[in-house]
Amino acid sequence: MAATSRHIGDWLFALPIASCGLKLDDEAVRVAVGLRLGLNLCVPHQCRCGVPVDASGLHSFVCKQAPGKTARHRALNDVVARAFSAAGIRASKEPTGLSRTDGKLPDGMTLITWWAGKPAVWDVTVVCTSAGSYLTSSAREAGAAAEFALAANRKTAKYVSLAASYIFFQIAVETQGPLSEKARQLLCDLGRRISASSGDDREVSFLFQRVSVVVQRFNAVLLHDSFCVEYRSD
Questions:
Q1: Which phi and psi angles does 189 have, rounded to 5°?
Q2: Less Cβ crowding at N or C end of the chain, within 10 Å?
Q3: Beta carbons of 7 and 146 less than 8 angstroms apart
Q4: Helical pair 68-86 and 181-198, crossing angle rounded to 10 deg
Q5: Any residues with CB less than 8 A from the CB of 233 and at least 6 apart, and which?
Q6: pLDDT digits over 144-184, tens only?
């Protein structure tokens, strides 16, 4: 089994503890299982953006107007920032004074060195496993969509200006679970550092489960974002 495919179903092993953010409601579980098994998720309808949505709900996960995308990004970035903090590494989200070549801020930066005397800078990216542009790659290998997205971002060289002074990590996660190899390596390293502090050798698994649960929770949110229901009062 490829390393990336090990984390496809991490949400299935998470203890449903609400206070730890690991509990999925019934609708989130329904959508997660439906995506995993390739089942129909909804009645065909028209998205709020005007694009038809078929029974698979695929458009819901790629719609650029879905409000849930921003909330999902923030939630995943919060998981990463908290992981750095739990590992004893202070970090700042969306650090000011630090920008990519396109003028946008990275998602976070450590306030102390991470490796080779350089602080770490990271960005979170979520790609739809079954999106048309990634479908061929996804069918070939689990996690290929995330790797494809990373390759595309490397070509744009958005972070070339930061390479000399920072260690850059792009954390690419797919809607159906797989992570890019770089993301997996970073989360494993963070989990091990948290374990060294807490004494619990399960911290690596817990971290992957947190990421997986957030992704599955927001898959349901994005599906519902596509519904545009008008209520009539007679």
A1: -65, -45
A2: C
A3: no
A4: 40
A5: none
A6: 555 545 544 553 456 666 777 888 888 888 888 788 888 89
